[in-house]
Amino acid sequence: MSIEIRGLSPLLGVFDMRTSVHFYCDVLGFELTFHSPFYAEGEFHFCMLRHGDAELMLNTAYDEGERPNPPDPARIASHGEVVFYFGCPDVEGAYRHLVANGVRVEPPKLVQYGFNVLSVFDPDGYHLCFQWPAKSDNAV
Q: Which is higher by pLDDT, 40 or 13?
């Protein structure tokens, strides 16, 4: 017997909630499905996002009035320890979409394990990778 699991929702600490929600919703197409109560006009500390079967939670890294300016480079550098991989059947289309939305991104490439991959960084420096098998007979 094993534990029944129905998904995974990573929690990301973000510097500026509005900027992150804009990136994930307006650029990547996630839907805001829940947020904590407003603490100021249009401002909240926590939210849940969904795009198809993918879920993501965002939480402000700092409480009200405690956010430094500019962001702490050490905190951003620590985000490089993790990469979020998204199954994306149209990697080339994702590239064109990101470029059209003003995101600085290198073209997709074929990697040694046989996947087309597109890497991008979100506003907080989290590494996002959109990937799909190069051959359709390997599709998942």
A: 13
